[in-house]
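BUG: 3D viewer hangs when loading the predicted structure for this chain

Environment: internal workstation, default settings.
Expected: structure renders.
Actual: progress bar stalls at 90%.

Input used:
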Amino acid sequence: MKHIDTGFTKYILVKQSILRYIEEHHLAMDSPLPSEREWAEMTGVSRLTVRRAITELANEGYVYVVHGRGTFVQSSTIQNNLYSLTSCTKDIMQQGRTPRKRVLLSEFVPASQDITTKLKINLGSPVFRLKRLYFADEHPIHLTTTHLVSDLVPNIEDYNFENISLYDVLENKMNITLLHAERYIKACEAPADIAALLEVRESFPLLYFSGIVYAKIGKITKPIETFFSYYRTDEFNFYINQVRV
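Structure tokens produced before the viewer hung:
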């Protein structure tokens, strides 16, 4: 596990590391987790930072702490949580369903005013546009269009995103650390073109997401992606862990 840099709030990155550990090791409820000391060594942060991360995860329902014994998995169900930043493919797999993607667009386009504002780049700068239709058990469940800052993702056009996850490419091929996202959600009715792709009637109720994903580039945090998605309300659901502050 990589040591965590100091360019972003460290305890949030530790939280992401713990959630990723639970997911990658397919840990069931009540499974033990590494100790605070082990997390500090694996991530290169202080035990105080680790303790804060674990405390927040406990408040959010992911883990629980038994004094004198350690930290344990409270719930291994992290899919569809609006807090967690995961790939769409992983969301589907965590539902126990078989994912498939169809790439509808893969191209470079000049940034519009809206994209310029969200990604903090110059108007007309090249961005990589990727439009994908996602299936679960061969049912179309959501449509996502994403725009990425071209200068930050060299040779992105060389990848076949029907067979590989975008976030896997960014993190594992390009060594980009994804940090957090701002996501906005609202209910909408399916426009005719979206309804046809999702195989629902026109005006079918959908959930519309839009958002911006931030990444650590060198020592600087920058927006790297902006996206919008249409989700079928009969095939997908989301939840939010809320904590009183």
